[in-house]
Amino acid sequence: MDLALKQNLDLQIANIETATRQQDHAIARSELLPNASFVAHDTVTRYNTKAELGVQPSIIPHDVGPFQTIHIGATFSTPVFDLTLIRQYQESGHRLLATRADEQTIREETVLLAVSGYMAHLRALASITAAQSRMELAERLAHQADDLLGDGVASKIDRSRAQVRLREEQQRLIDAQRDADTTLYALKRVLNIPDSQQIEFVDRQDFFSTPPVDFSDSLPIALVQRPELHSLSEGLKVAEFAHKAAEANSLPKLTFGGFWDEQGQTFNTATPGYQYRVTLGIPIFTGGRLSAERKRTALVEQQTRKQLSQERNRITEQVRDGRVELQAALHQVDLGRQEVQLANEEVSLSQGRFQSGVTDNIEVIVAQDSLARANDAEIGALFRYNIARAQLARAVGTVERAYSH
Protein backbone atom coordinates (compact mmCIF):
# COMPACT_ATOMS: atom_id res chain seq x y z
CA MET A 1 0.00 0.00 0.00
CA ASP A 2 2.86 2.37 0.82
CA LEU A 3 4.36 1.68 -2.61
CA ALA A 4 1.03 2.36 -4.33
CA LEU A 5 0.59 5.66 -2.47
CA LYS A 6 4.11 6.67 -3.43
CA GLN A 7 4.23 5.67 -7.10
CA ASN A 8 0.69 5.56 -8.48
CA LEU A 9 0.41 7.97 -11.42
CA ASP A 10 -3.13 9.13 -10.62
CA LEU A 11 -1.99 10.14 -7.16
CA GLN A 12 1.06 11.94 -8.54
CA ILE A 13 -1.23 13.91 -10.85
CA ALA A 14 -3.43 14.77 -7.86
CA ASN A 15 -0.35 16.00 -5.96
CA ILE A 16 0.53 18.28 -8.87
CA GLU A 17 -3.03 19.62 -8.92
CA THR A 18 -2.78 20.44 -5.20
CA ALA A 19 0.53 22.24 -5.76
CA THR A 20 -1.09 24.23 -8.58
CA ARG A 21 -3.93 25.33 -6.29
CA GLN A 22 -1.38 26.42 -3.69
CA GLN A 23 0.18 28.74 -6.26
CA ASP A 24 -3.26 30.04 -7.26
CA HIS A 25 -3.87 30.88 -3.60
CA ALA A 26 -0.54 32.71 -3.44
CA ILE A 27 -1.44 34.67 -6.58
CA ALA A 28 -4.81 35.68 -5.10
CA ARG A 29 -3.05 36.85 -1.94
CA SER A 30 -0.56 38.91 -3.93
CA GLU A 31 -3.44 40.93 -5.40
CA LEU A 32 -4.17 42.27 -1.90
CA LEU A 33 -0.59 43.34 -1.22
CA PRO A 34 1.29 46.43 -2.44
CA ASN A 35 3.10 46.11 -5.77
CA ALA A 36 6.25 48.01 -6.68
CA SER A 37 8.36 47.97 -9.83
CA PHE A 38 11.63 49.55 -10.93
CA VAL A 39 11.34 51.47 -14.20
CA ALA A 40 14.07 53.02 -16.33
CA HIS A 41 13.60 54.43 -19.82
CA ASP A 42 15.36 56.84 -22.16
CA THR A 43 13.18 58.60 -24.76
CA VAL A 44 14.00 60.82 -27.73
CA THR A 45 10.97 62.86 -28.92
CA ARG A 46 10.23 65.21 -31.81
CA TYR A 47 6.78 66.82 -32.28
CA ASN A 48 5.03 68.38 -35.26
CA THR A 49 3.27 71.37 -33.75
CA LYS A 50 0.36 71.49 -36.16
CA ALA A 51 -0.20 67.74 -35.85
CA GLU A 52 -0.31 68.01 -32.08
CA LEU A 53 -2.35 71.23 -31.74
CA GLY A 54 -4.42 71.17 -34.93
CA VAL A 55 -3.27 74.72 -35.79
CA GLN A 56 0.06 76.36 -36.41
CA PRO A 57 0.45 79.52 -34.26
CA SER A 58 2.95 81.92 -35.78
CA ILE A 59 4.81 82.34 -32.51
CA ILE A 60 5.45 78.58 -32.13
CA PRO A 61 8.01 76.76 -34.27
CA HIS A 62 6.77 74.31 -36.87
CA ASP A 63 8.34 71.44 -34.98
CA VAL A 64 9.71 70.87 -31.48
CA GLY A 65 12.70 68.68 -30.81
CA PRO A 66 14.25 66.33 -30.96
CA PHE A 67 14.90 66.26 -27.23
CA GLN A 68 15.86 63.49 -24.82
CA THR A 69 14.14 62.56 -21.55
CA ILE A 70 15.35 60.11 -18.93
CA HIS A 71 13.23 58.51 -16.19
CA ILE A 72 14.71 56.21 -13.52
CA GLY A 73 12.66 55.26 -10.47
CA ALA A 74 9.92 53.14 -8.96
CA THR A 75 6.19 52.80 -9.46
CA PHE A 76 3.82 51.40 -6.87
CA SER A 77 0.16 50.63 -6.30
CA THR A 78 -1.91 49.03 -3.57
CA PRO A 79 -5.62 48.37 -3.09
CA VAL A 80 -7.11 50.36 -0.23
CA PHE A 81 -10.62 48.94 -0.46
CA ASP A 82 -11.53 46.19 -2.93
CA LEU A 83 -13.97 43.68 -1.48
CA THR A 84 -13.88 41.65 -4.69
CA LEU A 85 -10.19 40.83 -4.22
CA ILE A 86 -10.82 39.83 -0.60
CA ARG A 87 -13.64 37.46 -1.61
CA GLN A 88 -11.52 36.00 -4.40
CA TYR A 89 -8.69 35.35 -1.93
CA GLN A 90 -11.10 33.59 0.42
CA GLU A 91 -12.49 31.62 -2.51
CA SER A 92 -9.01 30.45 -3.53
CA GLY A 93 -8.33 29.25 0.03
CA HIS A 94 -11.40 27.02 0.05
CA ARG A 95 -10.62 25.86 -3.48
CA LEU A 96 -7.24 24.69 -2.19
CA LEU A 97 -8.94 22.78 0.64
CA ALA A 98 -11.33 21.18 -1.85
CA THR A 99 -8.38 20.08 -3.99
CA ARG A 100 -6.70 18.53 -0.96
CA ALA A 101 -9.89 16.61 -0.24
CA ASP A 102 -9.94 15.46 -3.87
CA GLU A 103 -6.37 14.28 -3.41
CA GLN A 104 -7.45 12.26 -0.38
CA THR A 105 -10.22 10.75 -2.50
CA ILE A 106 -7.60 9.64 -5.02
CA ARG A 107 -5.55 8.15 -2.18
CA GLU A 108 -8.56 6.16 -0.97
CA GLU A 109 -9.33 4.95 -4.49
CA THR A 110 -5.68 4.04 -5.06
CA VAL A 111 -5.59 1.94 -1.90
CA LEU A 112 -8.83 0.21 -2.91
CA LEU A 113 -7.42 -0.54 -6.37
CA ALA A 114 -4.23 -1.89 -4.85
CA VAL A 115 -6.15 -4.05 -2.37
CA SER A 116 -8.41 -5.36 -5.14
CA GLY A 117 -5.45 -6.19 -7.37
CA TYR A 118 -3.58 -7.77 -4.49
CA MET A 119 -6.55 -9.92 -3.50
CA ALA A 120 -7.17 -10.91 -7.12
CA HIS A 121 -3.61 -12.21 -7.32
CA LEU A 122 -3.91 -14.03 -3.99
CA ARG A 123 -7.11 -15.58 -5.32
CA ALA A 124 -5.21 -16.80 -8.39
CA LEU A 125 -2.44 -18.20 -6.19
CA ALA A 126 -5.03 -20.01 -4.06
CA SER A 127 -6.57 -21.42 -7.24
CA ILE A 128 -3.12 -22.68 -8.28
CA THR A 129 -2.66 -24.41 -4.93
CA ALA A 130 -6.10 -26.01 -5.16
CA ALA A 131 -5.54 -27.05 -8.78
CA GLN A 132 -2.17 -28.59 -7.93
CA SER A 133 -3.76 -30.53 -5.08
CA ARG A 134 -6.54 -31.81 -7.34
CA MET A 135 -4.04 -32.71 -10.06
CA GLU A 136 -2.00 -34.74 -7.57
CA LEU A 137 -5.23 -36.45 -6.49
CA ALA A 138 -6.10 -37.14 -10.12
CA GLU A 139 -2.64 -38.66 -10.66
CA ARG A 140 -3.08 -40.96 -7.68
CA LEU A 141 -6.53 -42.00 -8.88
CA ALA A 142 -5.17 -42.63 -12.38
CA HIS A 143 -2.46 -44.87 -10.91
CA GLN A 144 -5.13 -46.59 -8.83
CA ALA A 145 -7.18 -47.26 -11.97
CA ASP A 146 -4.10 -48.73 -13.67
CA ASP A 147 -3.39 -50.98 -10.71
CA LEU A 148 -6.99 -52.16 -10.45
CA LEU A 149 -7.06 -52.79 -14.19
CA GLY A 150 -4.00 -54.98 -13.80
CA ASP A 151 -5.70 -56.85 -10.96
CA GLY A 152 -8.78 -57.37 -13.09
CA VAL A 153 -10.99 -55.31 -10.79
CA ALA A 154 -11.36 -52.23 -13.05
CA SER A 155 -12.03 -51.89 -16.75
CA LYS A 156 -10.27 -49.95 -19.47
CA ILE A 157 -13.01 -47.33 -19.45
CA ASP A 158 -12.24 -46.69 -15.78
CA ARG A 159 -8.63 -46.02 -16.70
CA SER A 160 -9.73 -43.76 -19.58
CA ARG A 161 -12.01 -41.78 -17.28
CA ALA A 162 -9.17 -41.32 -14.81
CA GLN A 163 -6.80 -40.14 -17.55
CA VAL A 164 -9.36 -37.71 -18.94
CA ARG A 165 -9.90 -36.34 -15.46
CA LEU A 166 -6.16 -35.90 -15.01
CA ARG A 167 -5.97 -33.89 -18.24
CA GLU A 168 -8.86 -31.70 -17.08
CA GLU A 169 -7.09 -30.92 -13.82
CA GLN A 170 -3.89 -30.12 -15.72
CA GLN A 171 -5.84 -27.70 -17.90
CA ARG A 172 -7.34 -26.04 -14.83
CA LEU A 173 -3.85 -25.61 -13.40
CA ILE A 174 -2.76 -23.91 -16.62
CA ASP A 175 -5.77 -21.56 -16.42
CA ALA A 176 -4.98 -20.76 -12.79
CA GLN A 177 -1.36 -19.96 -13.66
CA ARG A 178 -2.56 -17.71 -16.49
CA ASP A 179 -4.86 -15.84 -14.10
CA ALA A 180 -1.95 -15.41 -11.68
CA ASP A 181 0.19 -13.83 -14.40
CA THR A 182 -2.52 -11.44 -15.62
CA THR A 183 -3.50 -10.33 -12.11
CA LEU A 184 0.16 -9.74 -11.29
CA TYR A 185 0.56 -7.49 -14.34
CA ALA A 186 -2.57 -5.57 -13.34
CA LEU A 187 -1.23 -5.10 -9.81
CA LYS A 188 2.11 -3.84 -11.15
CA ARG A 189 0.25 -1.28 -13.24
CA VAL A 190 -1.52 0.03 -10.14
CA LEU A 191 1.80 0.14 -8.26
CA ASN A 192 3.50 1.73 -11.29
CA ILE A 193 6.48 -0.63 -11.21
CA PRO A 194 8.18 -2.29 -14.21
CA ASP A 195 7.04 -5.74 -15.31
CA SER A 196 10.55 -7.07 -14.79
CA GLN A 197 10.48 -6.29 -11.07
CA GLN A 198 9.73 -9.28 -8.88
CA ILE A 199 7.15 -9.14 -6.08
CA GLU A 200 7.17 -11.51 -3.14
CA PHE A 201 3.84 -12.23 -1.46
CA VAL A 202 4.69 -13.11 2.13
CA ASP A 203 1.16 -13.07 3.55
CA ARG A 204 -0.72 -15.45 1.27
CA GLN A 205 -2.52 -17.02 4.22
CA ASP A 206 -4.21 -13.71 5.01
CA PHE A 207 -6.45 -14.41 2.02
CA PHE A 208 -8.02 -17.33 3.92
CA SER A 209 -8.57 -15.43 7.17
CA THR A 210 -11.85 -13.71 8.01
CA PRO A 211 -11.07 -11.37 10.90
CA PRO A 212 -14.03 -9.79 12.69
CA VAL A 213 -14.98 -6.38 11.36
CA ASP A 214 -16.88 -3.91 13.51
CA PHE A 215 -18.73 -1.33 11.44
CA SER A 216 -21.60 -0.72 13.83
CA ASP A 217 -21.01 3.05 13.69
CA SER A 218 -19.97 3.05 10.06
CA LEU A 219 -22.57 5.51 8.76
CA PRO A 220 -21.82 8.37 11.21
CA ILE A 221 -18.11 7.80 10.62
CA ALA A 222 -18.60 7.87 6.85
CA LEU A 223 -20.50 11.16 6.97
CA VAL A 224 -17.53 12.65 8.81
CA GLN A 225 -14.61 10.88 7.12
CA ARG A 226 -15.49 10.68 3.43
CA PRO A 227 -13.22 13.09 1.51
CA GLU A 228 -15.87 13.53 -1.19
CA LEU A 229 -18.09 15.27 1.37
CA HIS A 230 -15.17 17.43 2.48
CA SER A 231 -14.51 18.38 -1.13
CA LEU A 232 -18.13 19.31 -1.80
CA SER A 233 -18.38 21.20 1.49
CA GLU A 234 -15.37 23.27 0.51
CA GLY A 235 -16.77 23.54 -3.00
CA LEU A 236 -19.94 25.01 -1.51
CA LYS A 237 -17.85 27.62 0.31
CA VAL A 238 -16.06 28.33 -2.97
CA ALA A 239 -19.43 28.95 -4.62
CA GLU A 240 -20.56 31.15 -1.73
CA PHE A 241 -17.46 33.35 -1.89
CA ALA A 242 -17.66 33.47 -5.70
CA HIS A 243 -21.20 34.81 -5.32
CA LYS A 244 -20.03 37.35 -2.73
CA ALA A 245 -17.23 38.39 -5.08
CA ALA A 246 -19.78 38.91 -7.86
CA GLU A 247 -21.86 41.07 -5.51
CA ALA A 248 -18.76 43.03 -4.50
CA ASN A 249 -18.10 43.93 -8.14
CA SER A 250 -20.94 46.46 -7.81
CA LEU A 251 -19.24 48.25 -4.90
CA PRO A 252 -16.74 51.13 -5.17
CA LYS A 253 -13.04 50.30 -5.33
CA LEU A 254 -10.33 52.52 -3.90
CA THR A 255 -6.66 52.23 -4.87
CA PHE A 256 -3.54 54.21 -4.06
CA GLY A 257 -0.54 54.41 -6.37
CA GLY A 258 2.01 56.58 -8.06
CA PHE A 259 5.70 56.82 -8.86
CA TRP A 260 8.95 58.43 -7.72
CA ASP A 261 11.83 58.80 -10.13
CA GLU A 262 14.78 60.84 -11.31
CA GLN A 263 13.88 62.64 -14.55
CA GLY A 264 15.65 64.98 -16.89
CA GLN A 265 17.37 65.32 -20.24
CA THR A 266 20.62 63.79 -18.95
CA PHE A 267 21.75 61.90 -15.87
CA ASN A 268 23.67 64.93 -14.66
CA THR A 269 20.68 67.27 -14.92
CA ALA A 270 18.06 64.82 -13.58
CA THR A 271 15.92 65.94 -10.65
CA PRO A 272 13.47 64.00 -8.47
CA GLY A 273 9.89 63.77 -9.66
CA TYR A 274 6.91 62.01 -8.16
CA GLN A 275 3.20 61.47 -8.44
CA TYR A 276 0.74 60.16 -5.83
CA ARG A 277 -2.79 59.34 -6.81
CA VAL A 278 -5.92 57.95 -5.19
CA THR A 279 -8.40 56.32 -7.56
CA LEU A 280 -12.05 55.69 -6.80
CA GLY A 281 -13.90 53.47 -9.25
CA ILE A 282 -17.70 53.08 -9.20
CA PRO A 283 -19.47 50.93 -11.80
CA ILE A 284 -22.40 52.81 -13.34
CA PHE A 285 -23.45 50.85 -16.41
CA THR A 286 -22.06 47.47 -17.50
CA GLY A 287 -24.73 46.30 -19.91
CA GLY A 288 -26.22 43.83 -17.41
CA ARG A 289 -22.93 41.96 -16.90
CA LEU A 290 -22.79 42.41 -13.12
CA SER A 291 -26.39 41.27 -12.67
CA ALA A 292 -25.77 38.21 -14.84
CA GLU A 293 -22.64 37.33 -12.86
CA ARG A 294 -24.55 37.51 -9.59
CA LYS A 295 -27.33 35.28 -10.92
CA ARG A 296 -24.89 32.78 -12.40
CA THR A 297 -22.87 32.41 -9.19
CA ALA A 298 -26.10 32.05 -7.20
CA LEU A 299 -27.15 29.19 -9.48
CA VAL A 300 -23.75 27.52 -9.06
CA GLU A 301 -24.17 27.78 -5.29
CA GLN A 302 -27.61 26.14 -5.48
CA GLN A 303 -26.23 23.38 -7.70
CA THR A 304 -23.39 22.65 -5.29
CA ARG A 305 -25.83 22.38 -2.37
CA LYS A 306 -27.86 19.82 -4.32
CA GLN A 307 -24.70 17.88 -5.18
CA LEU A 308 -23.68 17.81 -1.52
CA SER A 309 -27.07 16.45 -0.49
CA GLN A 310 -26.96 13.90 -3.30
CA GLU A 311 -23.49 12.76 -2.24
CA ARG A 312 -24.66 12.23 1.35
CA ASN A 313 -27.47 10.01 0.08
CA ARG A 314 -25.07 8.08 -2.15
CA ILE A 315 -22.63 7.49 0.71
CA THR A 316 -25.45 6.34 2.98
CA GLU A 317 -26.49 3.82 0.34
CA GLN A 318 -22.90 2.64 -0.16
CA VAL A 319 -22.39 2.03 3.56
CA ARG A 320 -25.64 0.12 3.95
CA ASP A 321 -25.00 -1.95 0.82
CA GLY A 322 -21.46 -2.60 2.04
CA ARG A 323 -22.69 -3.99 5.35
CA VAL A 324 -25.13 -6.33 3.60
CA GLU A 325 -22.50 -7.49 1.11
CA LEU A 326 -19.92 -8.16 3.83
CA GLN A 327 -22.39 -10.19 5.89
CA ALA A 328 -23.47 -12.20 2.84
CA ALA A 329 -19.86 -12.85 1.87
CA LEU A 330 -19.04 -14.07 5.38
CA HIS A 331 -21.93 -16.56 5.27
CA GLN A 332 -20.80 -17.68 1.83
CA VAL A 333 -17.28 -18.35 3.17
CA ASP A 334 -18.72 -20.57 5.92
CA LEU A 335 -20.77 -22.52 3.39
CA GLY A 336 -17.80 -22.80 1.04
CA ARG A 337 -15.61 -24.29 3.75
CA GLN A 338 -18.31 -26.80 4.65
CA GLU A 339 -18.69 -27.67 0.97
CA VAL A 340 -14.95 -28.37 0.63
CA GLN A 341 -15.01 -30.56 3.72
CA LEU A 342 -17.96 -32.56 2.39
CA ALA A 343 -16.42 -32.83 -1.08
CA ASN A 344 -13.16 -34.21 0.36
CA GLU A 345 -15.20 -36.74 2.31
CA GLU A 346 -17.07 -37.69 -0.86
CA VAL A 347 -13.78 -38.23 -2.72
CA SER A 348 -12.43 -40.40 0.08
CA LEU A 349 -15.56 -42.57 0.26
CA SER A 350 -15.88 -43.01 -3.50
CA GLN A 351 -12.19 -43.85 -3.77
CA GLY A 352 -12.63 -46.58 -1.15
CA ARG A 353 -15.65 -48.02 -2.95
CA PHE A 354 -13.73 -48.09 -6.22
CA GLN A 355 -10.71 -49.68 -4.51
CA SER A 356 -12.88 -52.47 -3.10
CA GLY A 357 -14.52 -53.09 -6.47
CA VAL A 358 -18.01 -52.23 -5.28
CA THR A 359 -18.48 -49.75 -8.14
CA ASP A 360 -16.64 -48.25 -11.09
CA ASN A 361 -14.83 -44.89 -10.93
CA ILE A 362 -17.79 -42.82 -12.12
CA GLU A 363 -18.49 -41.99 -8.48
CA VAL A 364 -14.85 -40.94 -8.10
CA ILE A 365 -15.04 -38.65 -11.14
CA VAL A 366 -18.28 -37.12 -9.84
CA ALA A 367 -16.64 -36.59 -6.45
CA GLN A 368 -13.67 -34.91 -8.14
CA ASP A 369 -16.08 -32.57 -9.94
CA SER A 370 -17.71 -31.77 -6.61
CA LEU A 371 -14.31 -31.04 -5.08
CA ALA A 372 -13.35 -28.73 -7.95
CA ARG A 373 -16.61 -26.82 -7.62
CA ALA A 374 -16.19 -26.65 -3.85
CA ASN A 375 -12.65 -25.29 -4.18
CA ASP A 376 -13.81 -22.65 -6.65
CA ALA A 377 -16.76 -21.75 -4.41
CA GLU A 378 -14.59 -21.39 -1.31
CA ILE A 379 -11.93 -19.32 -3.08
CA GLY A 380 -14.60 -17.17 -4.73
CA ALA A 381 -16.32 -16.61 -1.39
CA LEU A 382 -13.02 -15.63 0.26
CA PHE A 383 -12.30 -13.21 -2.57
CA ARG A 384 -15.79 -11.78 -2.26
CA TYR A 385 -15.31 -11.33 1.49
CA ASN A 386 -11.95 -9.58 1.13
CA ILE A 387 -13.26 -7.25 -1.57
CA ALA A 388 -16.45 -6.53 0.42
CA ARG A 389 -14.35 -5.71 3.46
CA ALA A 390 -12.18 -3.29 1.46
CA GLN A 391 -15.19 -1.70 -0.26
CA LEU A 392 -16.95 -1.15 3.05
CA ALA A 393 -13.81 0.51 4.42
CA ARG A 394 -13.79 2.68 1.29
CA ALA A 395 -17.47 3.53 1.80
CA VAL A 396 -16.68 4.60 5.37
CA GLY A 397 -13.63 6.58 4.23
CA THR A 398 -11.04 4.63 6.23
CA VAL A 399 -9.56 2.25 3.65
CA GLU A 400 -6.13 3.91 3.71
CA ARG A 401 -5.97 3.73 7.49
CA ALA A 402 -7.16 0.12 7.46
CA TYR A 403 -4.66 -1.20 4.92
CA SER A 404 -1.63 1.11 5.11
CA HIS A 405 1.18 0.48 7.56
Automatic annotation (TrEMBL):
<dbReference type="GO" id="GO:0009279">
    <property type="term" value="C:cell outer membrane"/>
</dbReference>
<dbReference type="GO" id="GO:0015288">
    <property type="term" value="F:porin activity"/>
</dbReference>
<dbReference type="GO" id="GO:1990281">
    <property type="term" value="C:efflux pump complex"/>
</dbReference>
<keyword id="KW-0472">Membrane</keyword>
<protein>
    <submittedName>
        <fullName>TolC family protein</fullName>
    </submittedName>
</protein>
<dbReference type="Pfam" id="PF02321">
    <property type="entry name" value="OEP"/>
</dbReference>
<keyword id="KW-0812">Transmembrane</keyword>
<keyword id="KW-0998">Cell outer membrane</keyword>
<dbReference type="GO" id="GO:0015562">
    <property type="term" value="F:efflux transmembrane transporter activity"/>
</dbReference>
<keyword id="KW-1134">Transmembrane beta strand</keyword>
<dbReference type="InterPro" id="IPR051906">
    <property type="entry name" value="TolC-like"/>
</dbReference>
<dbReference type="InterPro" id="IPR003423">
    <property type="entry name" value="OMP_efflux"/>
</dbReference>
<comment type="similarity">
    <text>Belongs to the outer membrane factor (OMF) (TC 1.B.17) family.</text>
</comment>
<keyword id="KW-0813">Transport</keyword>
